[in-house]
Design brief:
The complex is a heterotrimer of chains A (about 260), B (about 240) and C (about 400). Chain B is α/β, with parallel strands linked by helices and about 240 residues long. Chain B is built from 8 helices and 10 strands. In chain B, a hairpin with a 2-residue loop joins strand 4 and strand 5. The relative contact order of chain B is 0.19. Helices cover about 55% and strands about 20% of the residues of chain C. Chain C is α+β, with helices and mostly antiparallel strands and about 400 residues long. The chains are: A alpha+beta (about 260), B alpha/beta (about 240), C alpha+beta (about 400). Chains in contact: A-C, B-C. Bound molecules: adenosine-5'-diphosphate and magnesium ion.
Chain lengths: ~260, ~240, ~400
C-alpha cells in the first residue's frame, strides 16, 4: 500500500503509482489484498513526469514548473525549471534523507529531521510528504468503511495506523472507483477525528497507455485559504532511468 | 430622719451586705450580712482574725468588688448600683486607697506616683505640683520626691501611699492592713501620722488590721468574726 | 495623662533588661532579615527583568496587531518613517530599534538546522540593547549590509560553526518565492537567553529584507524606556500618537507575559519570608509581653483601683511594645541600609550561572529601595501590636480586688 501513502504524501509519483497499481490486475478481495498487490506492483516501477505546481495562499499565488524522476520507492529527484528566481533549485531524496541544491549559492543543504514537517518549497506539501518511506502496508490496518453521503460505484477504504507507529494521522480515508480503482479523494484526520487535509484527484488523462487523474489538489484545513494544485503535463512509466540521476553529484550539477 | 437624709449625712451606710465567693463550685460566704454606718471624720479600725472578711468588706464598700447582696451608700450615693466608668470615676474622686503593700508604681518617682490621680482627674500642672509638694511635706518625704519607690523603706513607701491617697482630697481613705508589712514601731508611727492627718483634714479613715498596737489608736473599733460584726466600740 | 501613659510605657521598657533585649533582638533581627531579603530579591529580580527587557526584548514593542498571537512574515509594519517621527518625539524613550523575523533552514558545511532569522539595524540595535556587548566571539555586524551574520552561541555549537564560515540560508520570501542566500559568520552571541541563542541568527536588516522580499518593511520595533516604571506611560503615549489601527503597542508585561507571570509568582515567594519573620517577631513579642503583664498584675490592679481606664492600660501596654519596636526598626534600618548598600555596590557573582526562564544569570545584587524598609517596618509594628493586643486586654481587665490578693 505504499502507493496509497505516497499518493497522500508525495504528490508527484504517488498518485501516479497509486493509479498504476490500482489499475493493475488487482482482484476483488478485501482491502488489504488489493493494497498488497499494488505494493508489489509498485516496487518495480520508475517514472518521469513534467508538471506544474500552483500554490495559492491568501497573500500570494505562484506556479512552479518541475521535472520529477522516481526510482523504486526510495529515490526521488525533482528540479525546478521556473520561475526564474527558483530555476535550478533541486531536491534529492534517497530513503528517508533529503537534500536541496541552491544554485544561487551553489550549495547543497541537507534537510535535518527537525525540518521534515516544514513546507516543501512553500507548498502545502511537507518535506515529510516527499521523504517519508512509509511502509504503508505494514503501518496501517485496512478495511472498507462507510461515509456520509456515499456515492455510487465508489469504495471507501479506511487506513488506521497500527499502534506504536510514528504516524501523525489518526486515520486516512481513501475513496476509489470500484471498477478502475482510480482515486477520487483522500482525507486525513487527526487523532480526534478532525479533518486536517484532503487531496482531490481530477481530470482523467491518458499518458501513454495509462489513464490517470492529471490534477491533484491538496487542501490543508488548518490553513485557511491555502491550496496547492499539481498538474501533470507529461508522464512516463516503467521507463529506464539511470541511477546516476539520484546522486549528490547530479544534484550539484545544476541544469 | 428619712432614710435618704440619713444616708446623705453619713459617709458610708451599708445594709445587709453579703458576699459569697465561688470556690470550685462551692459558695463560700466571706461576709454574711453587715449593717454599718460611718460618719464623716471618723477614724475607724476594722479588726478581726485573718479570714474574718475584713478585706472583702473594704473592697465591697469601695466598689472594688461587688456585693452578692445588700446595699452600700457612699456620701448618699448608692454605690452598689454603679458600674464601669461611673464607678471607676466615683472611686477616683471620692476614695483614697492604701493597700497592704506594692501600692506604688515602681517606674514612677514618688512625686509622679502622688501626682497620678490628679492627672486622671485633669488637674492642671501648677496645681498638681503645689499639692504634691504640700502633701509630701505633710508625710515628711519632700526630699524624696524624685526617688523611685524600690529605693525607699517599707514605711516610707506606705507614707507615699498615704500621700497619694490624700492628695486629691477624697472624703474617704480606705487602708487594708497598711502596716502588715511593717515592724510594730514603724506601723505605730504610720498610724500616728494617719491619725494626725485625720484630725487636721477631717477626712474619714477606715483601716483594717489585726495588730493590737494599731488597733489601740483607733477611735472606733469594729470587730468582724466569720463575716459578721461581733463588736462595735467607740472610745469616748 | 497621655504623657503619663507614655512615661510609664517608656520606663517599663527598661525594667526587665534581659527580656527587653530578647524581644528587641527578635524585632531587630526580623526587620534586618526582611529588609535585606526584600532589597536582595528586588535587586536580583530587577536585574533579571532588565536583562530580559532592556538588553533583549525592549520594554515596549510595536507590532502588526495580530503578529504576537500568530506571527507571519507578511504581518509587517509598513510605515516606519512615520512611526520613527513619533518615537523620536515621545518623552522617556531611551532608544528604539527595528527588527524583522522569519524562520528558515540554515546550513554550515554538512550540518543544517531550522532557525529563526532576525534582521536588525546594527547601529540602532547596539544603541538600544547593547547588542555588541553580548558578542562573545568575533565582532558586530558592519553598519552597512555586507552579507554577514551573527550566530547565537547555542546555534553555533549545534552547527559546529565558527567565525569566517559560510552559512547558507533557505527560507521563503513574503511573495512566496524561495529565499536562499549565503553569508559569512562574523560573530557569536551570548544574549543570556539560551533558548533564543540556540535557534537564532542575526543579519543586517537590509540583507534580511532582500532575502525575504520585505523591502521597507519590519515586524517589530523594540523600545527601551528610561526607567522600568515608565513603560506603561510610554505605551499610552504611543497608542495615542500612532494613528494606525493595524498596529499595536504593548508593554513587556504583555509581550513577555509568561516571563512576567513567572516573575510575579516568584516575587510572591517573598511573602514566605515575611511569614517567617512574622512568626519570629510574634513568638518573641508574645512571650515576653505576656510574661510582663502577668508579672505586673498587682500594678495594673492598683492603677485600676485608683481610677485608670481599661483603655489607658491597653495603650500603656501597646505603647511599651511599640516604643521598643520603633527603636528596633530604626536600628534595623541603619543596619539594613548598610547591608543593602554593601551588596548593591558589590553584589555576588555566582560560581555557576543560574538559569531563569531560559535566561542565564550569574550576578546577584541587592537594591536600596523604600519597599525593603517600609514593608518590614509595617510588618514588625503590626505584628508586635497585634500580638500584644491579647496581653493588653488581659491587663486592662485586671480585677483590682482579686489582683490585690496575690502576694
Ligand atoms: N477570691 C476568693 N475566692 C474564694 N474565697 C475567698 C476569696 N477571697 C477571700 N476568700 C475567702 O473569704 C474569706 C474572707 O477573706 P478576707 O476578706 O480576705 O479576710 P481577711 O481580710 O479578714 O483576712 C476567707 O475565708 C477567704 O478564704
Ligand atoms: Mg485581708
Amino acid at each position: 500500500m505504499s502507493k496509497f501513502s505516497r499518493v497522500s504524501i508525495f504528490p508527484v509519483f504517488l498518485s501516479l503509482l497509486l493509479t498504476l497499481s490500482l489499475q493493475g490486475d488487482a482482484e476483488q478481495g478485501d482491502a488489504k489484498e488489493i493494497v498488497k498487490k499494488m505494493d508489489e506492483l509498485y516496487r518495480s516501477s520508475s517514472s518521469f513526469a513534467s508538471m506544474e505546481m500552483e500554490i495559492i495562499t491568501p497573500h500570494w499565488q505562484r506556479t512552479l514548473k518541475l521535472d520529477a524522476w522516481s526510482l523504486g520507492m526510495d529515490k526521488t529527484f525533482i528540479r525546478i525549471l521556473a520561475p526564474k528566481k527558483e530555476r535550478g533549485i533541486a531536491t534529492l531524496r534517497i530513503d528517508n534523507e533529503m537534500w536541496n541544491f541552491l544554485p544561487k549559492t551553489n550549495k547543497v543543504m541537507k534537510v535535518p529531521p527537525s525540518m521534515m514537517m516544514g513546507s516543501w518549497m512553500g507548498s502545502d506539501f511537507t518535506n515529510d510528504d516527499l521523504v517519508k518511506e512509509y511502509t504503508f502496508l505494514d503501518d496501517y490496518i485496512f478495511g472498507f468503511t462507510e461515509v456520509d453521503n456515499p456515492r455510487e460505484n465508489v469504495l471507501y477504504v479506511k487506513c488506521t495506523p497500527k499502534e506504536g507507529r510514528p504516524i501523525i494521522w489518526g486515520h486516512i480515508i481513501i475513496a476509489v472507483k470500484d471498477d478502475s480503482y482510480l482515486p477520487i479523494w483522500q482525507k486525513y484526520y487527526d487523532e480526534k477525528g478532525k479533518l486536517m487535509r484532503e487531496i482531490i484527484y481530477k481530470d482523467l488523462k491518458k499518458f501513454g497507455t495509462r489513464e490517470i487523474p492529471a490534477v491533484m489538489e491538496l487542501i490543508p484545513h488548518n490553513k485557511k485559504g491555502n491550496r496547492t494544485i499539481v498538474r501533470y503535463v507529461t508522464a512516463e512509466f516503467n521507463i529506464k532511468i539511470g541511477k546516476e540521476i539520484f546522486s549528490l553529484r547530479n544534484l550539484r550539477s545544476g541544469i | 430622719m428619712s432614710n435618704k437624709m440619713k444616708n446623705e449625712a453619713n459617709i458610708i451606710v451599708t445594709k445587709n451586705i453579703k458576699k459569697n465567693y465561688r470556690d470550685n463550685g462551692i459558695e463560700v460566704p466571706a461576709v454574711r450580712g453587715i449593717d454599718l454606718t460611718i460618719k464623716p471624720g471618723e477614724f475607724a479600725a476594722i479588726v478581726g482574725p485573718s479570714g474574718s472578711g475584713k478585706t472583702t468588706f473594704l473592697n465591697v464598700i469601695s466598689g472594688l468588688d461587688s456585693a452578692t447582696e445588700g446595699k452600700v451608700w457612699l456620701k448618699g450615693k448608692l454605690l452598689t448600683d454603679m458600674k464601669g466608668k461611673e464607678l471607676s470615676d466615683f472611686r477616683r474622686d471620692h476614695i483614697g486607697f492604701i493597700f497592704q503593700s506594692y501600692n506604688l508604681i515602681p517606674v514612677l518617682t514618688v512625686e509622679e506616683n502622688v501626682e497620678y490621680i490628679m492627672l486622671l482627674q485633669g488637674v492642671d500642672k501648677a496645681e498638681r505640683h503645689r499639692r504634691v509638694l504640700e502633701i509630701l511635706k505633710e508625710v515628711g518625704l519632700e526630699e524624696y520626691a524624685d526617688r523611685l519607690p524600690p529605693k525607699l523603706s517599707g514605711g516610707q513607701q506606705q507614707r507615699v501611699a498615704i500621700a497619694r491617697a490624700m492628695v486629691s482630697r477624697p472624703s474617704l481613705i480606705l487602708a487594708d492592713e497598711p502596716t502588715a508589712n511593717l515592724d510594730s514601731k514603724t506601723g505605730a508611727g504610720l498610724l500616728d501620722m494617719m491619725k494626725e492627718l485625720n484630725k487636721k483634714t477631717g477626712m474619714t479613715f477606715i483601716f483594717s488590721t489585726h495588730d493590737e498596737m494599731v488597733m489601740k489608736r483607733a477611735r472606733r473599733v469594729i470587730t468582724l468574726k466569720d463575716g459578721r460584726i461581733a463588736g462595735d466600740e467607740t472610745k469616748k | 495623662m497621655k504623657m503619663m501613659v507614655l512615661k510609664i510605657a517608656f520606663r517599663n521598657v527598661f525594667r526587665q533588661k534581659r527580656r527587653t533585649i530578647l524581644t528587641a533582638l527578635s524585632m531587630f533581627g526580623g526587620f534586618v532579615l526582611a529588609a535585606f531579603f526584600i532589597g536582595w530579591a528586588d535587586g536580583t529580580y530587577n536585574n533579571i527583568i532588565d536583562t530580559f527587557t532592556r538588553y533583549n526584548l525592549g520594554h515596549v514593542q510595536v507590532h502588526e496587531k495580530s503578529y504576537s498571537d500568530r506571527p507571519a512574515i507578511y504581518k509587517t509594519i509598513n510605515n516606519l518613517p512615520e512611526i520613527e517621527k513619533v518615537l523620536d518625539n515621545t518623552k522617556k524613550i531611551t532608544s528604539w530599534t527595528p527588527r524583522l523575523f522569519s524562520a528558515g533552514l540554515v546550513s554550515v558545511k554538512d550540518k543544517s538546522v531550522g532557525t529563526r532569522i532576525i534582521g536588525i539595524d546594527p547601529e540602532k540595535e547596539v544603541r538600544t540593547t547593547k547588542f555588541d556587548e553580548k558578542i562573545v566571539k568575533g565582532r558586530m555586524l558592519a553598519k552597512t549590509p555586507a552579507h554577514e551574520v551573527v550566530l547565537g552561541k547555542g546555534l553555533a555549537r549545534i552547527l559546529k560553526a565558527d567565525l569566517e564560515d559560510e552559512i547558507v540560508v533557505l527560507s521563503q520570501g513574503a511573495d512566496g518565492s524561495i529565499a536562499n542566500d549565503m553569508y559569512e559568520i562574523v560573530g557569536i552571541l551570548d544574549s543570556g537567553d539560551e533558548i533564543s541563542d540556540r535557534a537564532s541568527f542575526y543579519l543586517h536588516l537590509t540583507d534580511a529584507r532582500e532575502l525575504l522580499v520585505l523591502e521597507g518593511r519590519i515586524h517589530e520595533i523594540a523600545v527601551t524606556v528610561n526607567r522600568l516604571s515608565d513603560a506603561d506611560g510610554v505605551v499610552k503615549a504611543l497608542r495615542e500618537k500612532i494613528d494606525d489601527p493595524r498596529l499595536t503597542v504593548e508593554p513587556w508585561q504583555v509581550f513577555a507575559r509568561s516571563f512576567y507571570v513567572a516573575m510575579k509568582a516568584d516575587k510572591e515567594g517573598m511573602w514566605i519570608m515575611l511569614v517567617i519573620i512574622v512568626l519570629v517577631v510574634a513568638v518573641g513579642v508574645l512571650n515576653t509581653v505576656l510574661m510582663s503583664v502577668l508579672e505586673r498584675r498587682r500594678e495594673y490592679g492598683v492603677l485600676k483601683a485608683v481610677g485608670t481606664r481599661p483603655s489607658q492600660i491597653i495603650k500603656m501596654v501597646l505603647a511599651e511594645v511599640n516604643i521598643l519596636a520603633v527603636v528596633c526598626i530604626l536600628a534595623g534600618a541603619a543596619v539594613g541600609l548598610l547591608l543593602n548598600y554593601l551588596f548593591s555596590v558589590h553584589g555576588i557573582s555566582l560560581p555557576e550561572p543560574i538559569s531563569y526562564g531560559g535566561m542565564k544569570f550569574q550576578h546577584m545584587q541587592a537594591e536600596i529601595n523604600a519597599r525593603s524598609f517600609y514593608i518590614p517596618a509595617i510588618t514588625v509594628l503590626f505584628v508586635a501590636t497585634f500580638v500584644s493586643l491579647f496581653p493588653a486586654f488581659k491587663a486592662a481587665r485586671t480585677d483590682p480586688a482579686r489582683s490585690m490578693r496575690i502576694h
